[in-house]
Amino acid sequence: MPRRLFLALILLVAAPMVLLGWMSANAIKASQLAAKENLATLLSSQLYDADLRIVQLFDGYALRLNEQLDASQSVFEALRRMRREVPIVRQGIVVDRSGTMVFPRPSDSVGIDATEVAAALPGLVDARPLPNVNSDSKSSGAKVASKTTFTESAWQQWYMADGAQVVYWRTRGDGSTVGVLLERSRWIADLIAALPDHRGRSMAPSSLRPTEGGSKVELAELAATPIGSLTLVDEAKRLVYRWGEADQLSLPPLVTSPLSPPLASWQFRLHVDQSLIPSSSSIPTYLSSAGIALLLLSVGFYVLTSVQRQVSEAKSRVNFAGQVSHELRTPLTNIRLYTELAESDLQRITKSDASESLARRLEVIDHESRRLQRLVSGVLEMIRPSGKPLGVRREPTDVGELIGGIAEQFTPSFKAAGLTLQTVCRCRDQVSIDGDVVEMVLVNLLSNVEKYVPRGGQCVIECDLLDDASASTRTLRVVVSDDGPGIAAAHQEKIFRPFQRVDDSIHAPSGTGIGLTIARRAAVRHGGTLVLSSEPHLGGATFTLTLPIGD
Amino acid sequence: MSATHWKNAPALLAIGLALAAMLGSGSNTLRAEQLSLDVGVSNPTMLAGEKQINHIRISLTGFDVPQNKKRPPVNTAIVIDQSGSMGGQKIVQAREAAIAAVRRLRDDDIVSIVLYSDSATVLVPATKATDRESIIQKIRSVNAGGSTALFAGVSKGAAEVRKFLDSDSVNRVILLSDGQANVGPKSPRELERLGASLVKEGISVSTLGLGLGYNEDLMSRLASAGSGNHMFVEQADDLVAVFQKEFNDLMSVVASDFKIHAKIGEGIRPVRVLNNKADISGQDIYIPLAQLYARQQRYFVIEVEVDAGQAGSKRPLASVTVQYQNMLSQTTDTLTSSIEVRFSDDKEAVARECDHETAAYCAIQLANEKNVQATALRDAGRIDEAKELLLGNSVQLQKLEQLYGAQLGDELSMELKRNAKLNQDQSVIIESPSAWNYSRKAMRYEQSKNAAQQQMRVKTPPPADKK
Fold this sequence. Notes:
The complex is a heterodimer.
Chain A lengths: L1 H70 L3 H11 L3 E7 L5 E3 L8 H15 L8 H10 L5 E11 L2 E10 L4 E6 L1 H11 L19 H9 L6 E5 L5 E6 L10 E4 L8 E5 L10 H67 L4 H31 L11 E4 H19 L2 E6 L4 E4 L1 H18 L5 E11 L4 E10 L32 H11 L3 E4 L9 E7 L3
Parallel strand pairs in A: 11-13
Antiparallel strand pairs in A: 1-2, 1-5, 3-4, 4-5, 6-7, 6-9, 8-9, 10-12, 13-14, 14-16, 15-16
Helix pairs in contact in A: 1-2, 1-7, 7-8, 8-11, 9-10, 10-11
Chain B lengths: L1 H5 L6 H18 L5 E6 L3 E3 L4 E10 L12 E8 L7 H16 L5 E7 L3 E9 L3 H9 L9 H14 L6 E8 L10 H13 L3 E7 L5 H10 L1 E7 L5 H13 L1 E12 L3 E6 L5 E3 L2 E4 L3 E3 L3 E10 L7 E13 L4 E14 L2 H6 L3 H24 L3 H26 L1 H20 L6 H17 L15
Parallel strand pairs in B: 2-17, 4-5, 4-7, 7-8, 8-9
Antiparallel strand pairs in B: 1-3, 3-15, 5-6, 10-13, 10-14, 10-16, 11-15, 12-13, 16-17
């Protein structure tokens, strides 16, 4: 019992703790995530600044390339010169209106690098972002427009030997398209130069030589000390450049943001020291849940100890009652013995009025002492450890005589209560049975009848032997039925539980509420059953006792 | 210039001053020092009737800086590796070398110091060298630790130089590294392309490889494409001396921003420029060159394929235009020269008229190319083939020296001998697997030196061309 209670207590404490823990962990996670997101948005302004510089860098390239392309009448000549003199240019490309690549020609590029570029050009040209689809529709306008007029420009990203390459495309008024393959190493170097250095210093995007004044001031503002470690990774996620605080690269990035086109396959990553992400909120949560656990545990402990105390108190009370009952037995037996002796003595003396009244009084003493004995046996039955078929003494018994004797005991009190008691016994044989059990059951049933059946009611005890062919056993069945108020179906089981009464009000007949419990326990101890029949014979309550008969 | 006149008799003072004024105004155009351009061909007379290979040599020789002339200002970024491997004596010597270099600078020179390890740090942004002490103070604080973001270092260094980029100053990034680049772009190719790109805007890159851990391919190719010097510094103790040498070169630059254009004649196909990444487009060859030092002899060998010609006919071979910024007169000067070939049936005449000097120079470059091939063969484990190539080089150069040494002049003769011996020594040293790391670096160093004529200086510059 205490162990079970203890387990229950643990469960009682553990279940809410687990729930609380789960909820608080969730809350912490959510708050950390929110904090992380806040931090990320706060810090990604750095990435935005960095990205802005890269956009400016590529805008600068476009501006410079446009100037260069416009500077010369012959676009071929311009592209040849640009390859030699403009640091960012690796190779120029010209695609005519029909989509044929007309520059570079094989003789325009000699050498291993040039061969490699030449091999990649057809694919690159096919995938160019400014196909000459709409050039036909424009052709009429284009004839009017000047030959060197450029209309549209776009960036292209293409993969070649070293990795991502950037190509600048521009359509010309005559429907042809000019592309400039940028020098990868150069724009990486310019990117790095435009980004802050390790200590957060930075400078203007260099090779575009920004106009003095405005842009320099603007960029100086961007050069704030970086928080965390920022990295630039290429399309294969290889580290290209990093700046800011060191030693945070092993951590997963807090923010990852792609660069603006044309370098959309590259990424900025922001790594932040774990200490920057607010996480202190978890400590109070843990503390409070620990406090709640302590509280629950102490309450549980208090409940457990008080229950234990009560249980032990009840146990000692029961023990006391048992011992008292045992103690009562001996004097009771003596009282009955001497009452019987006194009765037999009285028969020997001559009858007189005095002896008559003496006999009647002795009869009352005998009756009451028997009742007392029954009560004591009942108490002992109650405190007997349940479930153990102990103390059953089977002996050949004449059931009719036994039941008749019990009925006779109740005759005076039934008569006084205005009730009639009738016994119908259909077995004449001697059966092996513990008469005390039958008596204990019947006495309790009959005293209930006596208490609850109103004046003028009747009670019938039927008794027969049942043969169970299959099990080759015989069963004694005793049915006690009355025409009293009966018991509602809802209480059918409840009435057998100890200290349970259908009506516990002050107007109800006195009783301890353990009579039926004692009766059923006795029956069960004998291997039998005691049930309340759902179909009463006489309209009141009908109890059926069945007991297996030994050999 | 007028200082010399002050020492003359006071009576002549007035005349002297007048003369000085006159000379001062007119002499820049009349008497300014000029580079000399010499264009030669190995075989001026070619056998008629068959397609043949010929070699053209374009040679530029720097003039000497007169004592009374101010050298052009220097704009340099010193890019120092401060990765973990630089710890100990290396970083100490690197600091000393940088400090010694800064001390040599003039007030109008511009210097910046860039450090790189995990990332790049601009220690000293590009600034005039007037406040040397605070620069030196900053250099003293440099410590080693971290990885090697070499590309970022060069990028930042170039950006610092670019801040004060001027055609009248010597713009150079000096890169010191002792380890493998491991952050950012790291292939020799990528660095080479960056170097080539920087040369286009007049920034040269010199590389100093320290110890035995650096990537000699990356460093030599970067310097070669970057039109600068490549040095192999085995011992950290030599670093100060090497830095001094580099700064000697830097401070002796007499011409920059070259535009070397060779127009190859019809019926002749340009094949390549030996040991150089020139831009060849049709018949036009453009050779990148950032700077030329005083008295430096810098030459390029163009290999051409000449179509069969008729005996007795002549064919224009190449016309060469060299435009450059004269650092002393601060003017843009142009030199031109052209050359032609004759065709003859007479085999003896062809052999007799061979230009042995040009042929010898070409032989050195051809041998250098084979030397590069030998390194590749040795890398592939084909030691015997590599050895054969090197010994072949040695024998050929030796033969040339023995046959024509007397008529070639001391400098060229010595150069032939030196190269012959070098190839022979290398053929022995490449056999040792344990020494290969060292000898490979040494080989790359010699190859760069030969290809860029890093150390070729003439005793007396030839009189300036008046073309």
